[in-house]
Amino acid sequence: MSSFKIILANLKKRKGATVTFFVLIILAAQIFSMSLALITGLQNFYDKKLAELNGPHFSTHIIESVFRDEFKEFALDYEGVTEVSAKSSLFTFSNWQANANSVVLASFLMRESDWSNSFYRSPIIDDTGNKPENFIYLPLGFRFNYGVRAGETISLEGYEFYVSGFFEDAVSGASSIGIVLAYISDSKFNLISSEEKFMAYRTLMIRFENPEMNRDFSFDFFRFTEIRANEIVIQAYDTSKIAVETFISIAAMMLIIFTIIILLISLVIVSFSITNSISEEVIAIGALKSIGYKNKKLRQIQLMQYFLISGIGSIIGIFITLVTFGFIGNIIASTSGLLWLDSTNLFSNLVAFVSICALTALITYIASSKYKKITPVNALRHGEENHSFKKNPLPLERKKMSLNIHLGVKRFINSFKNNLILTVTVMLLVFTSLLVNVMNYNMNVNRSAMIQMVGIEMSDIIVQVSPGVDIFIKNELIVTHPEVKQTILNEKRAILVDGLNTIIDVYEDFSKLATNTIVRGRNPDLRNEVVLASNTARAAGKDIGDTVVLDIDGIKKSYIIVGISQNIAEHGEGAAITVEAIYAHIGIFNPESILIYLNEGVNVSDYLNGLQNIFGNTVTLVDVQEQMDLILDSMSEPISILTIIMISMSIIIIAFVLFLIISTLIKKQKKEFGIMKALGYRNNDLIKQLIISFLPSLVVGTILGNILNFTIANEILSLFFSGIGLLRATFIIPLWQTLIVSLSVFGAGFLVLIVLSMRLRKISPQKLIIGY
Length: 772
Fold this sequence. Notes:
By secondary structure, the protein is of the alpha+beta class. Helix content is 53%, strand content 18%. The protein contains 23 helices and 19 strands. It has a six-stranded mixed beta barrel. It has a six-stranded mixed β-barrel with strand order 11-12-17-14-16-15, surrounded by four helices. A hairpin with a 2-residue loop joins strand 15 (547-552) and strand 16. Helix 2 packs antiparallel against helix 19 (624-668), helix 7 packs parallel to helix 10 and helix 19 (624-668) packs parallel to helix 22 (735-757). The relative contact order is 0.12.
């Protein structure tokens, strides 16, 4: 008999196990190749896009009245700079309105004639070919995030613009950045430049030999120009890259964890199937050995069988990934404003294929070692070497509960290995479903914990004054308003921390801040105390109690580290000191921002509009909550989709595992069930017993999954975010949503259990006697 015929016979006999394993392999290969493609693709995605679009590594938007030609000359003479371009731009911070959508963005309008001037020579996407005087080219993110289409009109500050097309932008294209670059006709630019609604800026775009020069150049540029933070807007390529890649990477990592769980379940099923196959086919195996088949040959047949299934399943899963990756590409585009370059990642597909097939082969080889124990002689005795002296659990003569419950519990004990597999499967799948649900809840429902971790001070409004305006006088006027609870002055400065470039925050009183970013230690109180952000402290090799040297405007002084903070907004970098400390260090406190905290019940939008009417264009006002929502909204869709996918797949996998275990059990104990029916047990009695025997696994697995969720969810999420400066995740674990997800997974499993148990109705004592 050929090996191929034996494989076909095995597959025909064990259809349930084959189908279950095959489906799980397809899911594992699909998710694995997709997540690997995302991770490997992201490594070079931004670099390739920037090169393709010829975009700048570093852009600065400086108020026209402050800009000097020396700034451009400094950039041209800076070592490592390859290209510099200075262009006029118009700034406004207001609503873009299209259809029913409205979003507030910091917007810079550029001349069309600058489109082909050195930078941003990317092709126009969805180009209508129609360019009236009021035409505009928008970043691609407008199409994906706000539903704007080419040929429609969009308004800004009362002006209507005809959308002629879209372009990709690697620096300001991400909606999470909150800064938009758009191009309009030269005539329209000249017309609106005289409007008070638009502030004249000069945009300086720079390319480097090495994109990693951004930080050093930024620090040196600040030191040379002595520009205040409220007079300049910086857009760095690496900042945009990290902002977008972070959440895509987290989603990919969660998918990989889910893949590992699916693979573990699949490998357990392989071992389970081989063990059952050997126990059921003892006589056939003995017959094969008696005619000359060796253990090695039988193991090779099993290897070929499962390698064939895993290989075909992997290929199908990878193919599904290639077909559906356009959908994933659209999600990436909505987050980054960039079209995904390559959906056919050969490396990720190869790794997924080889990994799955290799693991399957390894487990198959180990599980099939049981062939050695079977000889033609003991095969005739159905594999029994001698009498079994195992104790009879829960003998019927001692029963203290109803017969069906007693027999169900007894069957649970006798099928402990099967129930253990089911319990672990349910536990892992419930945990992963709850883990992604925690992310979804904190991104889409209650964002308070996420806002704390982002590290942005959550005042109601930020006021940034124009050059030449006395911020202290503005602050005195604002604080007297009856709607205002308090104000805090803030200054940001570029400094050196033990020779490392970073930004320092200076606050009047840290105890008044609404956002507590301290994860270890405390905020500074004295003039010689400093708080370092996690990644800055790590780079400097410092911890609480150590001394660090701060270089502010060339003056160096030692400070004691009293706290370690975390933030995602600045990628885990930065420092903070008090106003008293800055006075002691350089003798001046030069704030550029007023943080306004309103009394409870005051409408932020109404107060902001009233403040704008009072101060006019001498200030720029920012609704902090609105900006935070804008940042988080861009990341919420991938998390929502991931949540739906993982919970749905968890239910599907539990259904398949239940199908395999129950089908195998019914097949092995078919005669036993037939005898019980002959003795008078009704179908409903047997169904109840079978349900009771598996119900504890569903209940215990669900409970253990919840325990893992409540105990280690934040620790795992902290690992995901650790690369961007998050030391300790404090995500809210929602009780009601946790209960709903748990009950959904459990309920679906229970429903499948009931449906599969109905197969006992088909067993007939008469058919068993006849033999069919």
